[in-house]
Amino acid sequence: MKEFITKLRSVPLELVFWIGSLLAILTIQPSAEAHFTLCPLDHLGFSWCPGCGLGRSMNLLARGDFEASWSMHPLAMLAYGVIFHRIWTLIKNLKTTHNYG
Questions:
Q1: Quick check: pTM over 0.85?
Q2: DSSP 53-80
Q3: Most buried pick, 3, 15, 16, 97, via CB within 10 A?
Q4: Exposed, middle or buried: residue 83 (CB in 10 Å: 0-12, 13-18, 19+)?
């Protein structure tokens, strides 16, 4: 049990965050009328934000609805690329830092 806790503490919090964010994106209902948002511009009453719709667009892209994803936010594919690259880099650094590979 002590070894498991030691290995768990060595996992970067950022890696857990990015994997959790991908799982959260997959649970979004993009067609829902009202949705939860953390957008500060939306909470301040602005009707336009450069990032709003990105999560829903990424969900549509994961479901294979490319046209709807593109129309909701055209940068969804780029966002997936950035997130997957960051996850890959963190895992690679974790392996080389702890001499696993």
A1: no
A2: THHHHHHHHHTT-HHHHHHH-TTHHHHH
A3: 15
A4: middle
3-state secondary structure of 100: coil
Give the 3-state secondary structure of residue 11: coil
Of 94, 77, 74, 71, nearest to 16 (Cα)?
94
C-beta separation of 61 from 52 below 8 A: no
Question: Please, how many CA atoms are within 13 Å of residue 52, restricted to the half-sphere of its CB?
Answer: 13
3 secondary structure, DSSP code: H
Name the maximum alpha-carbon separation found in the chain: 51
Q: Residue type at 90?
A: L
Tens of pLDDT, residue by residue over 64-83, are 999 999 999 999 999 999 99
d(CA 42, CA 29): 19
